[in-house]
Amino acid sequence: MSLLKRIADTDRPKVTIFIDGVEIQALLGDTVLTAILLHGKRVRVSEFGDGPRAGFCLMGVCQDCWVRSHNGKIFQACTTPVEEGMSLVTTIGNSSNES
Amino acid sequence: MKLNIDVAIIGGGTAGVAGALDLRKQGLTVAVFERHKIGSQASGVNYGGVRQQGRNSDELPLSKRSREIWEQLPNLIGSNCDFESTGHLKLARSEKEMEDLEQFSKLAAKHKLEIELLDHRSLRDRFPVLGESVIGASYCPSDGKANPRLVAPAFGRAAIKAGALIFEKEGVTNALHSSTGFVIETEKGRKVYSRVLVNSSGAWGDTVAGWFDEHVVLEVKNPNMFVTAPMPYRLKVNIGVPGADFYVRQTDRGNLICGGGFGISDRQASLSRPKLDVAQETSARLIDIIPFASESMVIRTWTGIEGFMPDSIPVIGMSEKIPELVHAFGFSGHGFQLGPVVGEIISELVTKGSCSLPIKPFNINRF
Amino acid sequence: MKAERVIIVGAGPAGLSAALKLIRSGIRPTLVDEAAESGGQIFRRQPKEFKRSPQVIYGFDAKSAIEEHRKFDEIAKNIDTRLGTMVCGIENQRLYLFNGAEVDFLDFDRLILATGAFDTVIPLPGWTLPGVFTLGGAQVSLKTQGCAVGRRIVFLGASPLLPYTAFQYCMAGAEVGGILETTSLSSKLAALPEMLKHSKGRKGVSMVAKLVLKGIPLRLGVKPLRIEGNKSVKSIVFLDSRGRENCWDCDAVIMGYGFKSENQLADLAGCRLYFEAQTNEWRVENDGEGRTTLPYVYVAGDGNGVKGWESARIEGELAANSLLKDLNLVSKMSEEIGVKNKLKKLSFFRKALDRAFPYPHHLAAEIEDSTIVCRCELISAGEIRQASKVSGEFEINRIKSFCRVGMGRCQGRICGSTTAEILRLLQGTSLEAVGHFRAQSPVKPIPTQNFRIFE
Q1: Cα C63 from Cα C59, distance rounded (Å)
Q2: Which of C127, C147, C383 should be substituted to probe chain A, the one whose Cβ sees the most A Cβ atoms within 10 Å?
Q3: Entry's InterPro entries (chain A) (predicted)?
Q4: What's the CATH code of the domain at A49?
């Protein structure tokens, strides 16, 4: 199940991305946050141990949706458009290592 | 408004409030006057490194005693202020820097300060978080880090509990000395009469000294700092370099606190501004030295107002011109660890006129 | 004449209005906005891949939205427009910009800040769960991503945009589980006569009526208790106006208690801010024509007090007009006579809205100790109260330094209002005395690997 639900404008070119290693079809124009939350219910895991987070304001204010890509880059999911081949990791906090 | 007091202290940084606490224990009446809030200047916004390593040799005996007091903070002021003895690593990025570190380790041995020298191999083995460019380091296990925002306020509360008077948002506008003692005027129009005056006014120490015709050259600088969002805790040790143009530590919540270079300031307005481009340069060094920082994000910059003396060591001691005037200012960017012992020294100077620690090198008329 | 370097921050109604005015007077400003598309929040343009008509997206505001988009297109032909560019810092007359890849700077002679506003929220247990979003976020998701934020959505808060957004969601075919407003029925009824005087007010009332007719549950005078769920939202529990506990199943909660100005850049630049008691807002001190206490900085729009897009448009032109006058360039407002009157009339409607949707101070101030207030640093209301009690202080930046509230990534944008209310109540002081979080650069986070200077 996912958090978000597409209800309009679904006729757009497909973009292949990877979320936690799983291949996903996003649509061109989706933000990374949209793509992730159409697939699941979590963008990251809170670094303070209070569980999963999925963003909050969706417009670049709350800073709660920073997500990490497979190769160590980080970006704000709600303001970053999806790009072909992006590989995102939602199972951890904002960086590559568990404490 | 009038006030009669044994000791008036100008400046509510750690030195001033630690001095107030100790003076109360000696039974003297004390009042501290602070233009802003306790610990709101350099004492509260500095890097938070608690280190003996790398100090001028004259500072080492004081630093050693201060280190003992840091252990006792919970008893002394009711909080450890997040002090942790996680060690301090000074990195050498060149052969010349490695030689400097070797020199210091010899000096440290004389002062019975334990230092371990590490070559590239053992450094990368012991501290795998470091990048390739560091060629060696000097490690001081008894050094560490603490939270600067908590220290002066905690000393302040302890001083108040012990009976000191603390006046915040009340700066001193003028002070005079005569045969009957000091007359101090504050910006709220209060007139304070004291036997002793302590000048612990940090980057404004030269101004206060100047009221008594003791002139020193003090340069105001603003160490440029920035902090990242929390990351998994991987860097226990506090890191610095010779020359202090780069330093980084990780808090136990995971933030990387990093500094290097200087911002700009307006001492008159007690304002200082960090410079973004200076932080940018420092962050390039950060990623080089701590590669995992490449996954972090910079969330804010800041700076503070620091007084630097020409020889980079503070002014501590009795005035040469006015009896009963004690100076303790100009900590040149490395006063945080010394705060607790300076409080003791102030108290000793006030009550005995002399100090058991060797403070002659810090005399105000040494220039 | 030397070309004045003017930068406008914000491509919403205020910024676009200012840009157009300057261009028509021969100035070539640079326009910067951190979003990928222009329009601000309310008229944010959808990405170019999206095809829905403005009528579908913006409803009865479609005409105005189209105007804004046309404005931008005209502006973009004439000047340097940098979308997706965040202004992260300002030092004297130098602006630092982050474009997603690196930090650059631009020097300027004059600056117009039209930085808009963001949602005011009030925390409650469970608000950090996946599935809780803001009102602004719900709008962005629907308008610019064609997505509903859930399958069964409950709207919670006190804001005219609450029923407005619920209505949009309904029209778009999403399931609206219900609307929970903290405002009491009596307050609504008291504000109704003034609301009905304005066409927008009448439209709003008719929207609410339509929602009720569609069978959407609407509860007034509620006290939200908690949001429940394990890894995401499952339900919301609240007390209704009779004090009875209710539980509504849902998979998304949209929260909105009004809006707050984004004035960090003005603060950082050194403009003086003051506390506007009537609206409980920190505003940039200005002369009523956009000039701030700094001779080279102007403000316009919701970034200087939330007044709505119509006021923002006028203020944008007004600020540009002031700038032109200050450069000794002849200028005239497009409707010279009546501008101030128009703004005043709009402010009456705004006051009516504030009375119909008052911010529930007590709800924020009385938050339970265990509730998380600062979601960036996970600081609870209890920790804030403790820091204030132990130190005896209440100035918000001092409390921040003691307990870390507001020290996280969002620089206190989300937790600031609630923290101020908690401190105000605890220490029996005023919001003005509590103060506001001081802005620090970068005003929003920048990945370190992009922040560093590239050789």
Answers
A1: 9
A2: C147
A3: 2Fe-2S-bd_N, 2Fe-2S_ferredoxin-like_sf
A4: 3.10.20.740
